[in-house]
Automatic annotation (TrEMBL):
Keyword hit for Ribosomal protein: no
Signal peptide: none
UniProt cross-references to Pfam families, sorted A to Z: GntR
Single Gene Ontology BP annotation: negative regulation of DNA-templated transcription
Protein name, as recorded: DNA-binding transcriptional regulator YhcF (GntR family)
Organism of this sequence: Longispora fulva
Length: 288
């Protein structure tokens, strides 16, 4: 029986055949939306070839693109599978919830948009609303790139340079995440559920290349943004851009210990010093 690949979208038999990058884009979307869950087998090359009406070599190159992005792995004689690392963002969540068990909660984030932070703190904030978590103060600082000024990334792939239309799209993503965090934290303050709850967002002109979380000055999570080429819709037109792959990147975890010379302690302290140095110098106020 043929595999049901309808989740990969429609195929117009009258349109030009899709290329390997187009097929990779559809597979990537299925992985990131977990239509292909971590650990699931990626459709075989013959199945992809039949579904999209392309040569098997085209299907193979599509899977190779996802291998290069570390979204899939191959097992000899068995095929390709979605990497379990796509579960990484879930791993951050319990640490954030644990941070909210403290009397005073302090979270610093630096990165592109804060989407992952927004998703990770929502459950903890819901528990504060329900009275299951009762911190006395919450202080969240979010430091992100200002997508209203020229950036090296994201960029239009064709010109490999800044493009206001590409940034406009990125700015919408950034604002959606940042505004949501601000609103959720402000709501706790407005309802009187937390004695002091504040979220401050500041922006800077440096392109986003990594993301970092610092929880209560005791833990730090760090991850690089791989740069990928993909096609997105900008003003209704398919546009190839160099974009940042942020949601599923591996995060490296560091914790403070009793040993001041330990790698974890030094990393967390260094991360906090770096954050404060940028926050206090080249950032400016974010206009919500």
């Amino acid at each position: 029986m043929a595999e049901n690949l309808d989740y990969l979208g429609d195929v117009d038999p009258t349109a030009p055949k899709l290329g390997s990058r187009d097929i990779a884009n559809r597979l990537r979307a299925a992985i990131l939306t977990q239509k292909l869950a971590p650990g699931a087998q990626v459709p075989s090359q013959p199945a992809l070839s039949d579904f999209f009406g392309v040569a098997r070599e085209t299907a193979r190159r599509a899977v190779d693109i996802l291998k290069a992005e570390r979204l899939v792995i191959t097992r000899q004689g068995s095929g390709a599978y979605v990497r379990a690392k796509t579960q990484r963002p879930v791993e951050l969540r319990p640490h954030i919830e644990a941070a909210f068990e403290r009397t005073h909660v302090a979270i610093d984030f630096a990165g592109f948009s804060g989407e992952t932070l927004r998703d990770a703190i929502t459950e903890a904030l819901d528990k504060v609303r329900a009275g299951d978590l009762t911190p006395e103060s919450i202080t969240i600082r979010v430091m992100i790139s200002d997508m209203t000024v020229p950036m090296a990334l994201p960029a239009r792939a064709e010109t490999q340079s800044d493009d206001p239309a590409v940034r406009e799209r990125a700015n919408r993503i950034t604002r959606r995440a940042a505004d949501s965090i601000i609103d959720q934290v402000q709501e706790l303050s407005d309802l009187g559920l937390v004695r002091s709850a504040q979220c401050e967002v500041r922006v800077h002109s440096a392109a986003p290349l990594f993301k970092m979380y610092i929880l209560n000055g005791e833990e730090a999570w760090f991850g690089f943004y791989p740069v990928i080429e993909r096609t997105v819709s900008i003003k209704g037109e398919p546009t190839a851009i160099y974009d940042l792959l942020g949601k599923d990147v591996p995060l490296f975890h560091y914790t403070v210990s009793d040993d001041s010379a330990s790698h974890g302690t030094q990393f967390v302290e260094g991360a906090a010093q770096w954050f404060d140095s940028v926050w206090d110098t080249i950032t400016r106020e974010y206009e919500a």
